[in-house]
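User: Just a sanity check before I run the rest of the batch. Below are the structure tokens for the first item. I only need the designed sequence back.
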């Protein structure tokens, strides 16, 4: 499984759909992160290389997601 921002991304989904499982990442941010990382958003997560996962991971790290966002919302 690809693990991004502490969340296991489902392997059988498209990359942009899988990224929406992360709290704070919606459709627009998922597509933006994929294109900024140079990854085709329609690629299945299981077909992503480790370099592509790392590129997406670095793009998602630029956003406030998961624990940071939950703490900020309290």
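Assistant: Here's the designed sequence for the first item:
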């Amino acid at each position: 499984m690809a693990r991004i921002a502490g969340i296991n991304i489902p392997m059988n989904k498209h990359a942009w759909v899988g990224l929406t499982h992360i709290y704070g990442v919606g459709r627009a941010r998922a597509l933006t992160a994929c294109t900024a990382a140079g990854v085709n958003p329609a690629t299945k997560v299981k077909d992503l290389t480790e370099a592509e996962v790392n590129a997406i991971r670095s793009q998602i790290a630029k956003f406030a997601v998961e624990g940071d966002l939950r703490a900020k919302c309290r």
